[in-house]
Each structure stands twice: as C-alpha cells, then as structure tokens.
Design brief:
Largest sheet: 4 strands, mixed
Oligomer: single chain
Shape: globular
Radius of gyration: 21 Å
C-alpha cells in the first residue's frame, strides 16, 4: 500500500458499500467508547489532562468548540476536547482493542471524529463514516509500523494516522491535504514504549490522548499548508492495505468486560469460573498459579498504589475477582486497593510462562489457572477472555457494560438513545451529544 491508496480510501469509502456486519461492529464500538470516556472522567488521569487542556486549548478562534463527555456541558477547542476525551477513553483500560496491533483503535479514533463532527455540524452518518475510515487506517498503520520498525509501540504511535484520517474526511480535505495530514500525524505521533508502561505504570499508558491530539493537530497543520514526506505505508515491508474496502478490521477486534489490561483478563475469567463451579472460599487459597504467555508475566504489581498500577497488574485483578466475585471500576478505587484481604491474596499469585500459550500470542490472549488450597488443587481449562472475536459479548452483555459505565454521569437509558441516534440517517451529531451537555457531572473516584 502507498499513501495514495490510503488517501483514496479516506475520500472514497462509503458506509453503504460496507457489509451490514461492519456497520454493526462500528456502532457497537462507538457506544462502547462513549461509555468508556464517560466513566474515565471519574478518575484522576482525566482531571490532570483536562486542567492542562483548559489552560492551553480553551476554545477555538471561530467558536467551533466540542463537548467534554464528563456530563458538565463544558466545551473546549476540538483539539482540546479530543485530548481530554481520548485520555478518558483509556483511563480505565476498558476500551475496545485489537489483537493484530495489541492496542485500542476505537479510543484513539472516536474522540477526534466526535469533536470534529460536532465542530463542523456533521451528520451522524458522516461521523460514522469518519470513524470507520479512521479505524481501518489506524490498524493498518499499526501493522505497518510494527513490521517496519520491529518495535512494539502503543496505540498513540499508530492511532494518530487513524485520527488524522477521520478528521480529514469530516473536514472534506482534498487529496493532497489529506496525504499531508496522514504523513504529519505519523511523523509527529508520540513514541510509546509500551512495555515500560506495563512494568512501571503511569498515566502515560498507551499514549492514546496524545495520539488522537496529534492526528487533529496534523490535520490543522496540513490545512495551513504544512507538508509531510509520505507515510509508513510507502515503506512497509508488508502489504497491509491492499485489501482496503474488502477486509474490515472493525469486525475482528474485541470488547473488554473488565477495566484492566487485556492480558490479565483470561486469568480473571478463569478464577471467576473456578469460584462459581467449586464454591471456593478465597481464604482457603494458598496459591493462584497463572499459566500464560511471556508478556503477561510482566504485569507483576501485587499491591497497586494507583488505578494505573491496578490496571497493569495481573495479581491484583485475579485476587480481587476471586474475593469480590467480579472486577469493575470499583476495584480501581483507593478503598478497594487498600483491602488487605485482596492484597494478601495478590501476594500469593505466581505467573508462569507456558510455552504453548506463548506460541499462540499475540493472535490469541490465553491463560489457565490453578487454585491451590489445603484440600486440593482446582484447575481451569485454557481460556480466552470474554469479548474476544471467537467469544464475543452478547448484545445484552455489552449494553449492560455500557450502562454501568454511563451511570451516574448520564442515565443508563443513554445506551438505547445512542443506538437509536446512530441508526438515524437524518440525525446530527449534536443530538447524539445531548445527554452530556447538561450539568450532570458524576461521582469521581
């Protein structure tokens, strides 16, 4: 693929030509991302970035501002709203993901598309098309960058291309300007050494906020005449987009049931299954032995001191799930992170590399768990996490997840409203945002 091919896709793609299943996944991921953003505002990461954005990106010169999804009705410039909403989208690590790039395409594409669509008064149909275009190019940029650089970098490093593509589509750029937007976004995208963030978690995480922001800024620069020198698509050693318009990565991503690193989620499912099947008392568990792939064993933190450390932990989520019967945003709060019953159990988690599971990663994210008790050992099957392409969340499960993330900031009924508006070809994006445009700020953690 070349930059010209990508540019043509940005201009020519039409939702009407996409298979119905693609549009169903598109809307499901959009709903999921709006819910993740809303809940993300209840955590400190969003507060810090919002404070910065309010100082430096308070409003657009032409008055075309965009809404923050914290329920306050606050607005910033499209770039500022993108930065904060995209940061919030990944604040809980509960957003959509894709195994092929080991990252989060929707969180880096939906916020810039939403902010730009609001600023230009786009229709919902135009917004949906921009998200679809951005998602497909984001994943392909990730595949190309990983193949070319041979370094595993986080979502922000490649998601900026998808963000720029979505913005270029909504702003009706000509082909030359679009090409410069894509090239500038990729060239200026944040370097995101993801394994450092896994081993030493901080608010930097996957670089999603800055990747989305870089895409918007690149589009603004290109509109002013800033030129780029091509994209990674001109250099890639793999043909990542010869099938643009024929193959859709939108249909092969996953939705996450739990607010933690995807790598830990099969272990969470395993302990919950054993807990339910055998009625295991957590206090009788001497060891939780998790057999998994090598990368997951870097999630070592057993006593997290922040929400980010809890999300990038393996011991804490499985211990919390075994004690409480689930793993929700409540388990990321300080009160739960200081629960000694959970922490003592987390100290007894052993992470073991399983060669067979290692060979199946990253195409599959798998684990099996042994719960060692005084009366015997209970072992799970090899499990993949719920929400995977092979084991998708049901419609009821994904709607329940979204409703739980929306409340208390906006009503649970926002789920049905979003679905209804996304299905209305005559609706404007502003109508999609109405639930967040009043002063309904939710509880903060």
């Amino acid at each position: 693929m070349t930059t010209d091919t990508a540019t043509s896709f940005v201009h020519d793609a039409q939702l009407s030509a996409f298979p119905p299943a693609v549009c169903e996944h598109l809307d499901a991921r959009t709903l999921d991302t709006l819910a993740a953003i809303t809940a993300g505002y209840r955590f400190p990461t969003a507060d810090v970035v919002r404070s910065y954005a309010e100082t430096h990106h308070a409003g657009a010169a032409d008055g075309a501002d965009a809404t923050l999804l914290d329920g306050s009705g606050a607005r910033l410039s499209p770039a500022g709203a993108t930065l904060v909403n995209a940061t919030a989208a990944n604040a809980l690590d509960v957003d959509d993901g894709h195994r092929a790039v080991k990252g989060h395409p929707a969180a880096v594409v939906v916020p810039p598309a939403l902010a730009t669509a609001e600023a230009v008064d786009a229709s919902v149909s135009e917004f949906r098309t921009a998200v679809a275009v951005g998602y497909e190019l984001a994943v392909r940029a990730g595949l190309a960058i990983h193949a070319t650089d041979e370094v595993y970098t986080g979502t922000g490093s490649w998601g900026a291309v998808g963000a720029a593509a979505a913005v270029a589509r909504l702003r009706n750029f000509d082909r030359e300007t679009t090409a410069h937007a894509l090239g500038t976004a990729e060239y200026h995208a944040p370097r995101t050494p993801i394994m450092r963030g896994v081993e030493r978690p901080g608010m930097t995480k996957d670089g999603i906020g800055w990747g989305a922001f870089a895409g918007v800024a690149a589009a603004d620069l290109a509109a002013r005449g800033f030129t780029a020198s091509g994209t990674v698509f001109d250099e890639s050693s793999v043909a990542v987009t010869d099938d643009l318009g024929d193959r859709f990565y939108l249909t092969s991503g996953y939705l996450k049931p739990y607010p933690c690193c995807r790598w830990a989620q099969p272990g969470v499912d395993a302990v919950l299954t054993l807990r339910q099947e055998h009625g295991i008392d957590p206090e009788t568990v001497e060891t939780i032995r998790v057999h998994t792939f090598e990368a997951a064993t870097h999630l070592q933190t057993s006593r997290p001191e922040s929400a980010e450390e809890a999300e990038y932990s393996y011991p804490y989520p499985v211990a919390a799930a075994l004690v409480t019967g689930g793993f929700t945003p409540a388990e990321l709060a300080a009160e739960r992170r200081e629960d000694e019953t959970i922490l003592a159990l987390a100290d007894r988690v052993d992470l073991v590399v399983d060669d067979a599971l290692e060979r199946r990663f990253p195409a599959e994210c798998l684990a099996r768990v042994d719960l060692v008790t005084a009366s015997g050992t209970y072992s799970s099957d090899v499990l993949r996490p719920r929400g995977a392409r092979e084991q998708p969340l049901t419609d009821a499960e994904r709607r329940e997840k979204a409703a739980g993330l929306f409340e208390p900031t906006v009503p649970a009924e926002t789920v049905s409203r979003v679905e209804r508006v996304l299905g209305d070809p005559d609706a404007r994006v502003d109508s999609l945002l109405e639930p967040w445009q009043g002063d309904t700020t939710g509880r903060r953690v």
